Amino acid sequence: MYFDFDYYRRLLRHVWGLKQWPGRRRLLLRLLLVTPLATLFNTLCFLLDYIFFPRLWTQRVVAPVFIVGHARSGTTLMHRLLSADGERFSYFLYWETLFPSLLQKRVIRWLGTVDSGLLGGALYRRIKAWDDKTFGPVSPYPQYEPVDFRGRPVRHAGGLRDPAVGDGPASDGCAGSVPSGSDARQAPALAAPLPGADQTPAAAQWR
């Protein structure tokens, strides 16, 4: 599992220097404790994937589609439209980027079956209520939010059950690039720690 140590050190140094920022302690705790533990846990699960699901060794990704564009140019809307066609395209839901391993997904879906059969979906309802409260109206200007062909608002943040957009799949562990861009965006004055695409090492770009 790839981990960008150079980016991690730069981000950690940057946040450490924000002596007056009120969110400094919380983000440092995340970077120093949560990020290493989550990376180790995901790495272990990725290794177990190849033991429990040996077909992954030969699995091919056929004709991947990359959506690239400037900010506010409609990339999120395009992603929503493509993800609505589940017969032709596969995609990550946001919760799947938080638990990127196939083993993790299988266990979570099994827990969902247990919850549905034994608890009547009580756990699901609690998670759904938290999801709706946390990722509900995310835009301060909802009247300007675009909608897809079903009339659903196209929200960048989305919810746990929505298709992941932006840097979600890459930044939340799927590619192992932890700490993520979402970590960095919580801190002020981010120009310094964030590397440009042309400055990223070739190995990091490839992974």
Describe this structure as you would to a colleague.
Helix 1 packs antiparallel against helix 2. The radius of gyration is 19 Å and the shape is globular. It is mainly α. It has one domain (5-206). It has helices at residues 5-16, 24-52, 75-83, 94-98, 102-118, 122-134, 168-171, 181-184, 202-206. It contains 9 helices and no strands. Helices cover 47% and strands 0% of the residues.
Quick overview:
By secondary structure, the protein is mainly alpha-helical. The protein is about 45% helix and about 0% strand.
Strand content: under 5%
Radius of gyration: 19 Å
Largest sheet: none
Based on helices, strands and strand pairing, what is the structural class? mainly alpha
Total domain modules: 1
User: Per the principal axes of the C-alpha atoms, what is the gross shape?
Assistant: globular
Number of helices: 9
Poorly predicted parts: 139-144, 168-181, 189-193
Fraction of residues in H or I helices: 40-55%
Number of strands: 0
Write down the secondary-structure element order.
Answer: HHHHHHHHH
Termini Cα gap: 9 Å
